[in-house]
Design brief:
By secondary structure, the chain is α/β, with parallel strands linked by helices. The chain has a domain at 61-323: Type I PLP-dependent aspartate aminotransferase-like (Major domain) (Aspartate Aminotransferase, domain 2), CATH 3.40.640. It contains 14 helices and 15 strands. The strands form 3 sheets. Strands 4-10-9-8-7-5-6 form a 7-stranded mixed β-sheet, sandwiched between helices. The longest helix is centred in the last third of the chain and has 22 residues, at 327-348. The protein is globular and about 65 Å long.
Length: 439
């Protein structure tokens, strides 16, 4: 388990996700703005946005009202039929999507959205393979699990059945290419990707699926120039570039989508989490006119009962309206506050190996200052993990952070409406938690 700390124990019939029977479940009963309250009445700053999705906080009335209005009008329409709220959401998504992305296929979760995008790319290119990064996370179902590079997820899924159809390449991070120089890192990582493409046979590759800014795998942005080269490789070898925006999308990186913070346009994006501000489950794929026209001509004989649920679509339209009223601009204005606070942690704690991120998507990475290696790497080590102890200490002091994949890092992902005072308080609590565990 690497999502939350402490791990979860279930005393009833509901089994938590990422379940660990040795841990202690936190029961949350209320939420307001950036805070949540547990069943004992204790209040916490929600700096994990629950699962990186409560972008608008916990009491956005306009979204709640839109959902109620839609439920009164008609709560459900078959996903094989059309309904006005579904069409309105698709039009709004086309307006804010990068480049010429125009055609939306709605699903329920990010895992399913990634599976749909891959299926569309395979059909369009008539090719079987998809390339994804090691250390990536694209979902926990069998299809999305084949795309995921996180070893814990894939090992769990593959205990009894293999996941197939994807090949892996190294992420553009210093540890993978033994360089801290951004220009050299961009060149080496892109050269490596081309090596993988050529060795896997370009004609067999339908898509490269990658996050514009890594999500739970570490909040790392690509070095300047990297995505330009990836775009060139996709064009040269006729491969679709799919941006997994499940976490990075809807303002978390300081613009509508993470790819808006890079100087290239993808061929498709997948989204979930923030599209409704987490008020209802909704996800999907936005594709460009080439793929969209192909589907309109050839059809697509797959679907899900609750894909594009009308109540969720109403939440999505209302959430887009809410995002236009300041939250995304707030991220841009306050990113320096968060960045500087986390960089101060790196400067004052020798156990903080690195901090990196973009917008309100950041990671604090820990390592032994004498060796530069993680204190505990769950991929190869047994025993206690002090980084999980830091999460627990911060929780005791009233701030919830998330655990990254692998769990030698902590995710800092507050709701987009967070104030500078709340940022300062959360960083101060994290500072104290690091002291408590390591000193």
């Amino acid at each position: 388990m690497s999502q939350q700390a402490p791990a979860a124990r279930s005393d009833g019939t509901s089994i938590p996700h990422w379940y660990d029977p040795t841990g202690d479940v936190l029961t949350i009963t209320e939420g307001s703005g950036v805070t949540v309250t547990d069943d004992a009445g204790k209040e916490y700053l929600d700096f994990c946005s629950q699962l990186y999705c409560a972008n608008l906080g916990h009491d956005q009335e306009s979204v709640v009202e839109a959902m109620a209005d839609q439920a009164r009008q008609i709560p459900y329409v078959s996903s094989a039929k059309s309904t006005p709220i579904r069409e309105e959401l698709a039009e709004r998504l086309a307006e804010i999507a990068p480049g010429d992305l125009s055609h939306t296929f709605l699903s329920i979760s990010g895992s399913e959205a990634n599976e749909v995008a891959v299926q569309l790319a395979r059909e369009y290119h008539d090719a079987p393979k998809v390339l994804t990064r090691w250390r990536s996370y694209h979902g926990g179902t069998y299809g999305a699990g084949s795309l995921t590079g996180d070893p814990d997820t894939r090992a769990t899924l593959e205990n009894h059945a293999a996941t197939t159809g994807a090949a892996k390449f190294l992420p553009p991070i210093p540890r993978a290419f033994d360089t801290d120089d951004p220009d050299e890192l961009a060149r080496l990582a892109a050269d490596h990707l081309e090596f993988v493409i050529r060795n896997e046979d370009p004609d067999s590759i339908a898509a490269i699926l990658t996050e514009p800014v890594a999500g739970t795998s570490g909040g790392f942005p690509a070095p300047p120039g990297y995505f330009e080269r990836v775009r060139e490789l996709c064009d040269e070898y006729d491969i679709s570039l799919i941006a997994d925006e499940v976490i990075a999308g809807f303002g978390r990186c300081g613009d509508w989508f993470g790819m808006d913070t890079e100087p290239v346009d993808p061929d498709m994006i997948t989204f979930a989490k923030g599209v409704t501000g987490a008020y209802a489950p909704l996800a999907g794929v936005i594709a460009g006119p080439d793929v969209g026209s192909y589907v309109e001509r050839e059809g697509f004989d797959l679907g899900q009962t609750f894909g594009g649920h009308p109540v969720a679509c109403a939440a999505g339209v209302a959430a887009i309206d809410a995002y236009t009223e300041g939250p995304i601009e707030n991220v841009g204005e306050l990113e320096p506050v968060l960045r500087e606070g986390l960089e101060d942690l790196e400067a004052t704690h020798d156990v903080v190996h690195d901090v990196h991120g973009r917008g309100f998507l950041w990671t604090v990475e820990f390592a032994d200052p004498e060796t530069g290696e993680p204190f505990h790497d769950p991929r190869v080590d047994d025993g206690d993990n002090p980084v999980m102890d830091v999460l627990g200490a911060a929780r005791e002091d009233g701030v919830l952070f998330g655990g990254g994949r692998p769990s030698f890092q902590i995710m800092v992902t507050p709701p987009l409406i967070t104030s500078d005072d709340q940022l300062d308080r959360a960083v101060s609590v994290l500072d104290g938690a690091i002291d408590d565990v390591f000193n």
